[in-house]
């Protein structure tokens, strides 16, 4: 890899803690790849030959159900990695990956990943940590689907878009509302109803912008 690696990516779960020489060895043949919104990175069932780290933008991981509908598994943003387990095992990708905004990813060769895993205990621990992050994310997602109402899920989603602790806030929706609904396990019409109900809590959504009167109140609503 010729271009300097962004400092923030070095702190991703996959690369964090690696000695510079180990990281450089892993990324020797890594490639930056850019995708436009809507482009496919790989399809469910394709051979898993690479691991990816999101440098910017958002990636959707999804599966086709037996009935032919799409189930959104995850939406991943900057510094998140994906496809580690499949590349290690050499099994087909169990999901499809699609750019849901213009984005750039770092593509790491799966064979190099497997070789380094055998050679370096430090990297093996980092890879386990990365896999755990994915697992924890799925557990959190299942918990929210089962224990939280649709309004609470939407409130949490909006609150997570801001670093503000209290007071007014304005956030931009990172991708379209249909995808937000799929990510939150809702139908688009249910998402619209949730947005409408949030008005009484000081939230106004217009196009791709949400204006929040008091983000602390919104966070409390999400946790109730």
From TrEMBL:
Pfam families: cNMP_binding, HTH_Crp_2
The entry's keywords: DNA-binding, Transcription, Transcription regulation
The organism's place on the tree of life at top rank: Bacteria
Every HTH crp-type domain range: 148-216
CDD domains: CAP_ED
Cyclic nucleotide-binding domain sequence ranges: 14-122
GO molecular function, one term: DNA-binding transcription factor activity
Gene3D superfamilies documented for this protein: Jelly Rolls (2.60.120.10), Winged helix-like DNA-binding domain superfamily/Winged helix DNA-binding domain (1.10.10.10)
GO cellular component: cytosol
Annotated PANTHER family: CRP FAMILY TRANSCRIPTIONAL REGULATORY PROTEIN, HTH-TYPE TRANSCRIPTIONAL REGULATOR ARCR
Protein name as catalogued: CRP-like cAMP-binding protein
Organism annotation: Paracoccus versutus
